[in-house]
């Protein structure tokens, strides 16, 4: 009980710390005010009590400060449930998103924009490498997660709040559909106009990417920048160039000599870009790819780990400006993108599936005991593991235990692979060092002879049934003494 | 200050997340503010564990699975024995997720 009381008090402190430190955000900057903050604290504490991790009496301290709202009491339920009823959710979200994007709020969606759009305009060539990261942050309005920076995704599962943004993005399909229609038209135009095909392909290839940028810029600027990249229209060329640079695609001028946009030098583009950004509306008919983009949007995990999708784009795009012939037809590249999207990139859910393989279905899944911690070091000596963890939270047997330091040591689960000790008596058989496969009691593996008299067998047991290589594969030493003949 | 989102999966983190979910859903809270609260929670929880918690625990068990990916160790232990100063718990199967503490100090 001692541990649980301390746990409870630490939790109380954490709650109060959080509440105090976000108070400014709630009260200033047109925040929802302190009543909402109090409601938050009340709900939070109530849930904690329902979960049985904070004790009632300790809660008095906070109850003194503000009344626990009686109204919105709801039972603790699954996290995913609230998001399903999206309709109520949609409206406020959309309303919130755009004003926020317009007014420069600290650390919010506004921040990524300069990195994305302005940096490329300033002509740095490294943009393609920077591309993935800022794009991810701007596309995917989880500024908080970005603040988390390097630690993102470390938790092994998407944090619950990684999901809402994706649902918001889901709700954007009307926008993307419009752009796509425009794209098709623009492309036909290009084809009919028999303008320089490779170049237009260059423009089109990144289109899926660019569209996301456009999203970002829409969010961030709050301005609507439609873009037309039809053939031969100088205004659209400009906007196209802007869009192009916004997507960090560096097209060197010399590579598209036949285009009228040649006359636009890089500096001109910068200027034009600034000018055009000041316009609230620049018509844009550029070619985002409908399906891959939507696919990407529909799988939030890709957003958490954007690398895969973006890499493909970069690979396709980077050589294109320099080598016109290398550019493949736009449709083909799109199809590739679609294929790539179909191949689910590695993500954190994969682990869970593997876990399921080993867990007897259903068993332990509900009562998952979990330890969340930081590790100082993890060492292994043969089959003995030793880990030093710190600053952890354990949820064991429905109790929360906090610890500052833990030393854990464990051995591989020999029960699953069956440590076998067999003794034979050995006389004169002289076996050199060799390896023999063996099959024994449903286990198979390899064994080696070390000496001939009292033979030390080195065996690695591989259960034919269960052992996955991911599990700790034990190496079992057997002393086998050969039987006398 | 770098933080881990790790602790959001704990009971206190889940409770906070649920609360924020509901409030965002009700429209009483903007998602951005909810994010900020979560980030603040990451910081506060990390700090509290560093400063307010002194207890030590030892865990022994059979290692079922180990995994090291993206600087995160994941262990699944079977028949793990957790020893506290004053108590001990036996758990049939426990999952341990640990982030690299060095990432925080960088």
From TrEMBL, chain A:
Gene3D superfamilies, from UniProt?
Answer: 1.10.287.100, Transcription factor IIA (TFIIA), beta-barrel domain (2.30.18.10)
What are the record keywords, sorted? Nucleus, Transcription
Question: What processes does the entry annotate via GO biological process terms?
Answer: transcription initiation at RNA polymerase II promoter
Biased segments, Polar residues type: 108-140, 315-335
Q: Where is the composition biased (Acidic residues)?
A: 337-358
Q: Which InterPro entries does the UniProt record give?
A: TFIIA_asu/bsu (IPR004855), TFIIA_b-brl (IPR009088)
Stretches the record annotates as Disordered = 106-172, 314-358
Q: Where in the cell is it found?
A: Nucleus
Q: Which domain of life is it from?
A: Eukaryota
Which terms in the GO cellular component ontology are assigned?
transcription factor TFIIA complex
Q: Which residues form the signal peptide?
A: none
Assign the protein's first listed, main location to one coarse class. Answer: nucleus
Family assignment?
Answer: Belongs to the TFIIA subunit 1 family.
How is this protein named in the record? Uncharacterized protein
Organism of this sequence: Dovyalis caffra
Lineage start? Eukaryota, Viridiplantae, Streptophyta, Embryophyta, Tracheophyta
TrEMBL record, chain B:
CC annotations in GO: transcription factor TFIIA complex
Classify the source by domain of life. Eukaryota
Report domain Transcription initiation factor IIA gamma subunit C-terminal positions: 60-101
All copies of the Transcription initiation factor IIA gamma subunit N-terminal domain together span 4-49
CDD domains xrefs: TFIIA_gamma_C, TFIIA_gamma_N
GO biological process terms held by the UniProt record: transcription initiation at RNA polymerase II promoter
- Report the main location listed first in the record: nucleus
Keyword list (alphabetical) reads: Nucleus, Transcription, Transcription regulation
InterPro entries the record matches = TFIIA_a-hlx, TFIIA_b-brl, TFIIA_gsu, TFIIA_gsu_C, TFIIA_gsu_N
Q: Where in the cell is it found?
A: Nucleus
Q: Which SUPFAM superfamilies match?
A: Transcription factor IIA (TFIIA), alpha-helical domain, Transcription factor IIA (TFIIA), beta-barrel domain
PANTHER family per the UniProt record, alphabetical:
TRANSCRIPTION INITIATION FACTOR IIA SUBUNIT 2
Q: Can you tell me which family this protein belongs to?
A: Belongs to the TFIIA subunit 2 family.
Function comment: TFIIA is a component of the transcription machinery of RNA polymerase II and plays an important role in transcriptional activation.
Q: Kindly state the subunit structure of this protein.
A: TFIIA is a heterodimer of the large unprocessed subunit 1 and a small subunit gamma. It was originally believed to be a heterotrimer of an alpha, a beta and a gamma subunit.
What is this protein identified as?
Answer: Transcription initiation factor IIA subunit 2
Organism name: Dovyalis caffra
């Amino acid at each position: 009980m001692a541990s649980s009381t301390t746990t409870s008090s630490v939790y109380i402190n954490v709650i109060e710390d959080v509440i105090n430190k976000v108070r400014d955000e709630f009260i200033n900057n047109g925040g929802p005010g302190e009543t909402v903050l109090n409601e938050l604290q009340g709900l939070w504490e109530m849930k904690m009590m329902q979960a049985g991790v904070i004790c009632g009496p300790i809660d008095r301290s906070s109850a003194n400060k503000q009344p626990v709202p009686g109204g919105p009491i709801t039972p603790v339920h699954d996290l995913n449930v609230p998001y399903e009823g999206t309709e109520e959710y949609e409206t406020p979200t959309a309303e919130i998103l755009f004003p926020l994007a317009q007014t420069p709020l600290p650390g919010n969606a506004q921040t990524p924009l300069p990195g994305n759009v302005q940096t490329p305009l300033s002509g740095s060539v490294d943009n393609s490498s920077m591309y993935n990261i800022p794009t991810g942050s701007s596309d995917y309005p989880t500024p908080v997660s970005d603040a988390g920076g390097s630690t993102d995704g470390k938790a092994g599962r998407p944090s619950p709040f990684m999901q809402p943004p994706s649902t918001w993005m889901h709700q954007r399909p009307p926008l993307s559909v419009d752009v796509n229609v425009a794209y098709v038209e623009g492309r036909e135009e290009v084809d009919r106009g028999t303008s320089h095909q490779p170049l237009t392909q260059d423009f089109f290839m990144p289109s899926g990417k660019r569209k996301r940028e456009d999203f970002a810029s829409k969010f961030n600027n709050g301005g609507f920048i439609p873009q037309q990249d039809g053939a031969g229209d100088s205004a659209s060329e400009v906007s196209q160039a802007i869009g192009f640079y916004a997507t960090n695609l560096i097209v060197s001028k010399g590579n598209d000599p036949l285009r009228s946009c040649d006359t636009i030098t890089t500096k001109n583009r910068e200027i034009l870009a600034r000018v055009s950004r000041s316009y609230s509306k620049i018509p844009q008919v550029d070619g985002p790819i409908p399906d891959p983009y939507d696919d990407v949007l529909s799988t939030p995990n890709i957003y958490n780990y954007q690398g895969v999708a973006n890499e493909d784009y970069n690979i396709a795009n980077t050589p294109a400006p320099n080598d016109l012939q290398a550019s493949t037809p736009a449709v083909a590249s799109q199809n590739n993108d679609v294929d790539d999207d179909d191949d689910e990139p590695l993500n954190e859910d994969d682990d869970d599936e593997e876990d399921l393989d080993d867990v007897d279905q259903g068993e332990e899944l509900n009562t998952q005991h979990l330890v969340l911690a930081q590790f100082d070091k993890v060492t292994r000596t043969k089959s003995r593991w030793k880990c030093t963890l710190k600053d952890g939270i354990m949820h064991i047997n429905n109790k929360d235990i906090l610890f500052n330091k833990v030393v854990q040591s464990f051995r591989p689960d020999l029960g699953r692979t069956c440590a076998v000790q067999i003794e034979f008596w050995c006389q004169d058989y002289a076996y050199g060092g060799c390896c023999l496969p063996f099959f024994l009691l449903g286990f198979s593996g390899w064994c080696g002879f070390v000496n001939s008299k009292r033979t030390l067998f080195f065996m690695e047991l591989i259960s034919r049934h269960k052992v996955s290589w991911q599990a700790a594969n034990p190496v079992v030493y057997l002393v086998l003494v050969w039987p006398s003949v | 200050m770098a933080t881990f989102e790790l602790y959001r999966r704990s009971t206190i983190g889940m409770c906070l997340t649920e609360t924020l979910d509901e409030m965002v859903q009700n429209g009483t809270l903007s998602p951005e503010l909810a994010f900020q609260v979560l980030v603040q929670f990451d910081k506060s929880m990390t700090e509290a564990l560093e400063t307010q918690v002194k207890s030590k625990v030892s865990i022994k068990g059979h290692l079922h699975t180990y995994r090291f990916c993206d600087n995160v160790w994941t262990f699944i232990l079977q028949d793990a024995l957790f020893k506290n100063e004053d108590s001990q718990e036996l758990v049939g199967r426990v999952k341990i997720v640990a982030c690299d503490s060095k990432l925080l100090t960088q």
